[in-house]
Amino acid sequence: MDILFVCTGNTCRSPMAEALLKRVLAERGIQGIKVSSAGLAADADSPASEGTMSVLQEGEDLSAHRARQVDETMLAEASLVLTMTASHKETLQTRFPSFAAKVFTLGEYAWGQGGDIADPYGGGREEYLQAREQIEAAVIKIAAALAAQGKGVDTMKIALASDHGGLQLKEELKGVIESLGHEYVDFGCNCTDSVDYPDFAAVAAKAVAKGDCQLGIIVCGTGLGMAIAANKVKGIRAVSCHDCYSAAMARAHNNANILTLGQRVTGSGLAAMIARTFLTTAFEGGRHQRRIEKISALEEDFGR
Ligand code: RB5
Questions:
Q1: Fewest CB within a 10 Å sphere: which of 75, 78, 151, 264?
Q2: Which one of 7, 189, 213, 220 is the catalytic residue?
Q3: pTM of the predicted model, to two decimals?
Q4: The CATH number, out of the four listed (3.40.250.10, 3.30.930.10, 3.40.1400.10, 3.50.50.60), of the domain defined by the range 157-301
Q5: pLDDT tens by residue, 171-212
Q6: Does the Cβ of 163 fall within 6 Å of ligand 1?
């Protein structure tokens, strides 16, 4: 499948959409979809605008982007053409009527109704951030639809739990899980009354150990008590992470199945990135599998 994004100059919105969709597809492990962009009035070979470059995040790279004028070959190759505005769509359909049926605005394709992505060109950072926000929401929706059509990885069920010290962060992490197209099961707690973290670690860890949930994220004040408690459940490899590198390695090398976070330690922005990294990194297996088996053997030795 080939998706072509089209805007006016191919330096702001359409390359931004290209970078965002590529990142979302990569995060979801969706392969085999070619994503590109072009413009209706492109100044060929111009790089992505500074404004667009300035709002890109990790995993979104437009350094090699050069503007291209949309042409018949690109349209013929594309299975889906998504424009930023209704006027782009109309222009494309008028200029290339034989491809009209595969041209939609991004808004109508994602949400089933219009809504132009305003041109941030010449505007300040606010305008670019607004365009980014709109485009990102739309491409997440599109990636979820592609996944539902069997083009993506399986949806995971994530066990979520916290004590009173992690309640707020647990609630915030629901959005991260949903944005990746996964589901969560909330094992509480559900209010700020003081509770005992081992009770909540236990129920989430048991759900992961039994296979009812594929991974878990549990939050307390520090992330430490939750990790200690969850690791008492056979089959659980719970890790407390404060950075994305550790979260990635915990999955890739240690096949960790529960992430613990500390609401009083890690700010919500970083915590969301850590959770996202944890949920989107796959276990590498190979030599690491042998080491995981040795950890399991230790569990047997000590009869936990
Ligand atoms: C509760 O005050 C706090 O001890 C708990 O949230 C957690 O940090 C335990 O490790």
A1: 264
A2: 220
A3: 0.56
A4: 3.40.1400.10
A5: 999 988 988 778 999 999 999 999 999 999 999 999 999 989
A6: yes
